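In response to the reviewer comment on reproducibility (Comment 2.3), we provide here a single inverse folding case reported in full, input and output, so that an independent group could reproduce the run without further information from us. The structure tokens appear first.
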């Protein structure tokens, strides 16, 4: 398997074991995002710590995750970008659209803070 899905109470995380996020696995990632959303998940973490290369299909999977999250009052957090993937995201000007943090722990914190703020907004 190219990635593992970790289901937590507030989010689902994708931990990639493959070095390439390409057209070979991007359709599976998109499908799993949709299935997870149907299960009630709207917050996602993509841990790209092992991903050294990403093509347009990989970027498309990331954008699908971002869109599904936003459409359902959730967020996508991308973490642990390797230099080549970080460069591609910047060249594609997606760094202003995506929530990117340095580590998995920071991604979890980001989601918990967003959930806290969302809860406060619902109260007030």
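Designed residues, in position order:
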């Amino acid at each position: 398997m190219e990635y593992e899905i970790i289901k937590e109470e507030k989010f689902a995380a994708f931990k990639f074991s493959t070095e390439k996020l390409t057209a070979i696995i991007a359709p599976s990632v998109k499908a799993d995002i949709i299935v997870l959303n149907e299960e009630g998940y709207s917050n996602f973490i993509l841990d790209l710590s092992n991903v050294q290369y990403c093509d347009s299909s990989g970027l498309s999977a990331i954008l699908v995750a971002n869109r599904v999250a936003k459409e359902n009052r959730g967020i996508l957090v991308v973490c642990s970008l390797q230099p080549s993937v970080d460069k591609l995201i910047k060249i594609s000007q997606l760094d202003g659209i995506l929530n990117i943090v340095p580590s998995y722990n920071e991604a979890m914190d980001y989601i918990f803070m967003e959930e806290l703020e969302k809860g406060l907004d619902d109260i007030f």
